[in-house]
Amino acid sequence: MSVQKPSLPKGTRDFGPVQMARRNYILNTIKETFSLFGFQQIETPAMENLSTLTGKYGDEGDQLLFKILNSGDFLKNVEPSDLEKGTSAMLPKVSEKGLRYDLTVPFARYVVMNRNDITFPFKRYQIQPVWRADRPQRGRYREFYQCDADVVGTDSLVCELEILLMIKRVFSKLGITDYSIKINNRKILTGLSEVIGEKGREGELCVAIDKLDKIGWEKVQEELNQRGFGERSIELLSPIITLKADNHKKLDFLKGFLSSSETGLKGLQEIQEVIQLLETFGETQDHVDFDVVLARGLTYYTGAIFEVKVHNVSIGSVSGGGRYDNLTGVFGLEGVSGVGFSFGVDRIYDVMEELGLFPEQHADQTKVLITYFDKSGFDYGLRILNRLRQAGIASELYPDEAKIKKQFTYADKKQIPYVLILGDNEIKEKNVSLKNLISGEQEVLSVEEMISRVC
Amino acid sequence: MSVQKPSLPKGTRDFGPVQMARRNYILNTIKETFSLFGFQQIETPAMENLSTLTGKYGDEGDQLLFKILNSGDFLKNVEPSDLEKGTSAMLPKVSEKGLRYDLTVPFARYVVMNRNDITFPFKRYQIQPVWRADRPQRGRYREFYQCDADVVGTDSLVCELEILLMIKRVFSKLGITDYSIKINNRKILTGLSEVIGEKGREGELCVAIDKLDKIGWEKVQEELNQRGFGERSIELLSPIITLKADNHKKLDFLKGFLSSSETGLKGLQEIQEVIQLLETFGETQDHVDFDVVLARGLTYYTGAIFEVKVHNVSIGSVSGGGRYDNLTGVFGLEGVSGVGFSFGVDRIYDVMEELGLFPEQHADQTKVLITYFDKSGFDYGLRILNRLRQAGIASELYPDEAKIKKQFTYADKKQIPYVLILGDNEIKEKNVSLKNLISGEQEVLSVEEMISRVC
Q1: Domain named Aminoacyl-transfer RNA synthetases class-II family profile: which ranges (chains A, B) (predicted)?
Q2: Strand order through the sheet with B95-99
Q3: What is the set of domains in chain A, with CATH numbers?
Q4: In the prediction, which pLDDT does B30 show?
């Protein structure tokens, strides 16, 4: 075998020990929250049949699916004429599986295939990588984790409440304090297009006002104009765009503004009820920001929509979700509605790094390294190692007889906070020298004292 | 879009909530043990360049790699003549990436690419799915998790000791009590082939005696005979095959038997030292079984080899590993030796199921369901939900006003052990009725009492 200089496929990443410890810190916080709220984890295979995936993400999405070459003789169904016809004739003959593109379509497939065994309302969460053949760029990868929670099989607004509560809990646990959970309702956007005299054009309206943050109201007006929205419509929309008030005042204002739209009022009522539930539950409205111009593209949302923005960081939008009517219709099961939410783990990672919020020490890190000078120190160290681990303290014995400096370097590089030094005196007196590498302090202790010190 | 009846690709599985809870129970036990021993987690991408994967698993392995079709115009480099030449000419033109086949090759690639940042000795663990285009059959899947721990960059036998300790800890935590950790040393097998007069044929010897468990000594003799091992060699081997004694007696016997083989004696000394380390550490030899005929195929092992067998179950072999000399040579980095071990998570799952060892309740399961009759019960329930979650108790409020029977069915199906019933009396008296669904017991309690009861 010839020697190769190995490399990674474009747009993919390794996660080393430090990154993994930090990712686990985020993911464990999220998982613990999901469990506390009664969500159950599922996993689906990386590969799905192309018939399951194709046509669910638009033409662009179909292009971005990673397809898997049939195993064995993948050319067995291929005719020379297929080659001339190009990739679209060739593809179905050489590939029948693809890598999952998101967690929603596999979840819909799962619900349909297991509908008789599932306990509805079904609260599920799923944390797995997805793959997209996107052009790689800063912050965009071809493999990345999604982290989704959905409740299907109920229209109860308690689900919307719980999404707000879960976000608040996760962010509070992670130490992220300066953020907003923007909430709106798709029906309000429908109502808006009705009352400005552009009924049925909420799709275009959403696409345009979705850009408000990026390009400003002036440019959005131009775009609406180009899309054929009338001067009068745009003028009517104006007070909504510039609306600044607390949630209750916004609700009051919109009750008047949307009074002629039944759908709009329904959306408003839903928002109001969610805010009311928050109060009944005993939680403040801190961070919860009713935002009439939050549009979140359009896609399949039919009720509440959510987006979380962290303030004063370079990439603020870290999570989003909403309520949908028909998750599983495409697989032949009608009437499964629900509401879902996705934590953007990579984004949250970046935010935490930018804000310096990761703890110095992680729970799953080694706490004590045992160092020694010779075979008798090694033997003594083995027995102490046993004691430490029995006390549940993550600990290591340096595996080789090596210069003490080398052993300390190991502790240092691995960010191990405590080092035990076992010399002749310690062995004779049956105690240990404990050095705290953070404070630099060193003291001689009995084994019991040392264990309670580092616990 | 037409309606489709969805299905899963052959050889792949969904994991539903119950399976996930059980898998997490196993994996968390393993992870916690790895951390306690100072192993650090890494993750590598699902996709690797085919140049990284190909040629590492033999011809059969290359066939079983899942290859990914190049994205975009995958035919752009294909000539009509390639089609005639068949799959081997076509493959490099339409695919440059594949799905990882195991965790060892990606780990070797990782070590080479990050050799300047890694702290050696490097104790890493990795738990990720791998993919193989094997013919699916009972217990064999095309996607399955591997769970590997390796230490590279040291020859210290402390690593072998720690593998034994980790296995013992994991199995003890999981409640598996009737099992053996078979340990042998590749050098002993080399020694055996030397002393029976078949020097250099330890490969064939291993392949044959590896089948001892399955086909018995008689058939193994036939195979050795067919392979051209002499009568006298087979006769000399005989006492080794039938050797039954405790570890120390086996060691004593082999010291004589292998006295003419330097390599054999070296292997013996290593085994002896590992057993000695176990004693120094203060751990018994229970479950540790020096097995001279353990061969574990051959592949790249050069020192200790391990295999764990659970007794009295249908598929007993659940884990294995060993020491190797040259992990990264194929990627141009020589001299990285180490020792590794892999827990067979699917197998351990099956064993635990067969032995009924999974706990009834899992830590991440909902503990309390709040049920109610009307809006005032719902509102009261929301406030109690807040209290429960603040106490860290995984709990849910049934999301819809529904018949109490339906709410209980939900608790039952989700195996929620406690149900709160909030009727008019409870609301008035500011207490709760708590029903234990396992014992059937029901009592009226204050909210504080209830919380301490279910904690």
Answers
A1: 1-399
A2: A47-49, A95-99, A67-69, B67-69, B95-99, B47-49
A3: 17-208+238-355 (3.30.930.10), 368-454 (3.40.50.800)
A4: 98
Per-chain mean pLDDT for chain A? 94
Taking the C-alpha atoms of residue A365 and residue A368, their distance in angstroms, rounded to an integer, is 9
Q: Which residue of A has its CA nearest to B145?
A: A45
CB proximity list for B354: less than 8 A, separation 6 or greater: B313, B314
Helices (H), B282-312: none
Inter-residue contact B192 to B224 (CB < 8 Å) = no
pLDDT band at A349 (very low <50, low <70, confident <90, very high): very high
Q: What is the rounded CA–CA span in Å between residue B228 and residue B236? A: 15
CB A32 within 8 A of CB A125: no
Sheet holding A122-131, edge to edge: A40-41, A122-131, A143-152, A338-343, A317-324, A301-310, A179-185, A288-290
At B396, which helix (H) or strand (E)?
Answer: strand B395-397
Vertex B244: Cα angle to B238 and B248 (nearest 5): 115
Which residues on A lie below 8 Å from B40 (Cβ)? 17, 20-21, 365, 414
Q: How confident is the model at residue B2 (pLDDT cuts 50, 70, 90)?
A: low
d(CA A184, CA A241): 13
Q: Do A113 and B8 touch (CB under 8 A)?
A: yes
Asked whether the beta carbons of residue A21 and residue B36 sit closer than 8 angstroms, the reply is no
Q: How much of chain B, in percent, has pLDDT values that exceed 70?
A: 98
* Rg of chain B in Å (alpha carbons): 28
Residues A433, B40: Cα–Cα separation, whole Å: 26
Average pLDDT of the residues in B28-43: 97
CA distance B47 to B96: 10
Give dist(CA B430, CA B443) in Å, integer.
14
DSSP string across A288-316 = EEE-TT-----TTEEEEEEEEEETTSSS-
Q: How many residues does chain B have?
A: 455
Tokens of B51: 């140049």
Tokens read off for A240: 């909504």
Q: List CB contacts (< 8 A) between B142 and chain A.
A: 47
**What's the confidence (pLDDT) of residue A191?**
96
Identify the burial level of B181 via C-beta atoms within 10 angstroms of its C-beta, where 0-12 means exposed, 13-18 middle and 19 or more buried: buried
pLDDT tens-place string over residues B159-179: 999 999 999 999 999 999 999
What is d(CA A15, CA A13) in angstroms, rounded to the nearest whole number?
A: 6
Residue type, A248: H
Q: Please give the pLDDT value at position B298.
A: 57
How far does CA A204 lie from the centroid of its chain? 28
* H or E stretch at A420: strand A418-422
> Please, which residues have CB within 8 angstroms of residue B132's CB and are 6 or more apart in sequence?
B64, B65, B66, B101, B142
CB A142 within 8 A of CB A131: yes
Q: How far apart are CA B27 and CA B345, in angstroms?
A: 8
What is the value of pTM for the model shown? 0.95
A169 has binding-site annotation: no
Q: How far apart are CA B336 and CA B357, in angstroms?
A: 39
Q: What's the mean pLDDT in B419-432?
A: 97
How far apart, in whole angstroms, are the C-alpha atoms of residue A436 and residue A433? 10
A119:B38 CB<8 A = no
How far apart CA A442 and CA B179 sit, in angstroms, is 44
- Indicate the SS3 state at residue A98: strand
Q: Chain A window 348-367: which residues touch B at a Cβ cutoff of 8 Å?
A: 363-366
Statement: residue A1 has pLDDT above 80? no
What is the C-alpha R_g of chain A?
Answer: 28
Q: Is B146 annotated as a binding residue?
A: yes
pLDDT of residue B81: 86
Residue B97: strand pairing partners: B49, B68
Average pLDDT over residues B313-333: 90
Helices B212-226 & B202-209 angle (0-180, nearest 10)? 140
